[in-house]
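Recap from last week: sequence in, structure out.
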Amino acid sequence: MRHLRRLGHSVAAGAVAGAALAPVQLLLWPDVTLPPLKVALAFAAWASWGAVWIGGAFFAASEAAAIFMPYLTAGRRFSVGMWRWLMTAVSFLVAGVAWWTRAETRDLLLKDNRHSLAWAASVATLYWLVYLVLAIRRRPRRHALERSAWAAALLVGWLWGIWAVAPRPRSEAPTIEAQPFAPAHRLLFVSWEGADLPWLLPLLERGDMPFLHSCWAGGAWGQLRTVRPYTHSATLATLVTGCAPAVHGVLGRTSYRVPWLTPDPVTLLLAGPWPSPHQLPWRAWARAPILSPARATLWRILLDTGRRVGLVGWPPYARGTWTVARPTAAAAVEAASLDPEIQAALGPVLRVAPHLAGDARNSFALAADVGAIARRRALAHPVDALAVDFELAAHLRPRWTPEESQGTEGQEVLRIAARLLDEQLRELWETMGEDTLLVVVSPYGLAPPSPWQRLIHLGAPAGRWRVTPVNSPDGFVFFFGPGVRPGTRLRGAQLADVTATVLYLLELPVARDMAGRVMLEAVTDERAAAAPLRLVPSYPAAGARLTPAP
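Predicted structure tokens:
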């Protein structure tokens, strides 16, 4: 009977945990509005999920704890001592998940929604402290069952109340008037994913990137604070829309459809001691394709002004006058567009590390093919704006960044990669011609694990110490061309600032709902005096209806 009593207590505590985690999960979906029936359905789904999975974990723990604390279920009915310890675990779990989730959604949620998460975490933390004190004191009270039930209901009701009063974004689609403005210059927009200033500046000093070095003193450059925590999809969408992830809506690589709860896909899931997406109850979900931004990309804005735009290597939602998807590694190797000098330089280095040679050759071939395709298409079909995304640095740096105990082969591979990127940049610049605004940007950098992460994985294989974007190190941006103040170092810049600044340098309006600012320190006094800052409410995504300007 004691085992059954422990099982009953554990299942009830798991149900409370599931019911308390449900509103915390819903706080991550501010766009989801639920009628009362759907609220009851969500409550039942998460409570039953918690009763089985979390309750099962509690039961296993209580069985082990009963060996050392047999008094927990000494009575024949409700055990106050066991329930207090279980509720201590429940409130600790909810508080930990809420705080952890808040830390993992720093730039992915609006400030008001993150405040709601903080309130939920604070409430659960308060309950944890109270139950911990009561469990340690071990003083039973009269009407213990009723008091315990009311306390659990108050915790769950408080969290659901926080979700009910949490701010909701406006559901209506933004509209703007079609603007009669036209870009003042051509644009060459090149993205080097995985590059950053600590890697780039030494290469410039060594002369490995002669073209970029020749432009450096005549342009404006600086670090970019990227999206934290790092997600590739949210980072690129923020770069090309200038809006915060909570506004453009691309929050991660994977989205999920929960048809019994909402018809719209959802992305953010609770961070906790479970593999994603098991936070969604009973596998009543299906994976959805990557979402498109809810705001127009820079390329869509230029297309709406009547300009021709060429895109190479960007995500599927990017559309231009002509668009080329990123080629596969097999197609790039078959194209064999890699320069013979680079092939000759790579040969001796790659022979030293044959286990990495194939992957490195594929990465070089892919980058060379992307640059060659962009140049050929731009010559065959001239455009006013050309945007190319390269992933060479992001592919090579994690595998070839040397540690102190390693040789120089990795450094040589990365120097060859830098020369390839620089040569492609020069060719694309010559293809676009003069009077072109050049923007070279890295949406994120790479860095080794922090000391704390190294301590956690003490004794792990050396492969764990590769540089990665996990810690969200800064990227960089470089502006060069008409209207750019030469020799300027930009400080305090964010990723979303790039689109706003490019629009201003092209003398196009900036949207009010963009999270970025115009970096006027990168603009010459003459351009700032001649070009007023024009603002529009928003740039809707493709397909939104525009109101013609009078």
